């Protein structure tokens, strides 16, 4: 008879992290745990920097990052994509807070989340893939330009003008004012030093690069500011609970404002498009399960709904954090959930650390992030191969800088639709004149109002004293405007006593 096994003396008890049972239940726990720490270190300075640049308490950026991990991270959709506050929404959030106040921001974010939930339930997520890439890249380029210009003022410790054009036009004056101010020079030096560290970080030894570049740059800037007692502004700390501002009933009254509804529409469009485009990009980085777009849109909606209820920043999926997650070896959604846990522990236990971070360092991080939003290589390639798309990208970006975010995106979408309609309305008119008998005119393709001038010019050039046979059987589409115009032309042509035009309708 065999002796019973003494479980307590087993080298790997059942509850041990290295036990076979634990490994079967969580086969990728070690990889996901390590990846979550990397994502946390990447997300921490970005969450704080986006919040400060958006004109809200720094802790609200952490709150959105926490919600992105603990709420959106748990939900199905994209298994390795990480959500949180994004640089792409910074300009829009800043304008909304300046226009309506911080309490109304929660209403905007809450409404954005509810609309995203509805769109996901109606299975509209997949249709965001149909948005013109030129418009999306133009949108991001415009955001990047405004973000860079605005953060240069923050790097100098000065207040930025309200409009995008004002920010760009004021840069020469900013440099002139900074040249005669010791404080501004110190602040700018720290900001540009942060950018230099970010640019050079990839060339440092591999052991150093185990620390994410953004965190390393902020840490170095903080140390320099403390050691040399630089006269630069630092992050204001209110505490996690003190920064939360759930929207009150009076804030919901602003929903009667038509302009606010336009702002919400802009939030929905930009947040949804950026998240789903990011999902497509992340899918190309790994061989795991593909993104379910409608479920991912609902996951983003749930996260924004909770963020709005807490009065925090809007969230999107963020390609920087997501790619770091994949490159760190994450296998399941556990890594993004755990990154939310680490953000929560930091915000709860170490919020005072934020007070040492210099604002110019955060401005430098966002200038670097804004630069990466501008697809310079993509524009050059697009200009060579698809000049019309490149023009849409450039006009969208310029419109965002010159007007505002919402109207700039609408201009880009309008141009994309007009270009597509023009290209889709190909029409061919073939004239056969044998010298005797009727002139034969064959129309083929798509006859839309956009091509009416070309069609009518050719038909009106036909001899008035000859009968005409108009064959429309080759048309795939004939819109009402073209049909009416052709009927009117036929009446005019026949009014001179010529034999009536014979029309072979499709």
Automatic annotation (TrEMBL):
Q: Where is this region: Disordered?
A: 1-24
Skewed-composition ranges (Low complexity): 1-10
User: According to its record, how does it sit in the membrane?
Assistant: Multi-pass membrane protein
Ranges where the SLC26A/SulP transporter domain occurs:
29-396
Q: Which residues cross the membrane?
A: 33-53, 60-80, 100-119, 131-153, 184-201, 213-235, 255-277, 341-371, 391-418
- Keywords for the protein's UniProt record, in alphabetical order: Membrane, Transmembrane, Transmembrane helix
Q: Name one GO cellular component term.
A: membrane
Location in the cell? Membrane
A GO BP entry: transmembrane transport
Q: Return the protein name.
A: SulP family inorganic anion transporter
Concerning InterPro entries, the annotation shows:
SLC26A/SulP_dom, SLC26A/SulP_fam
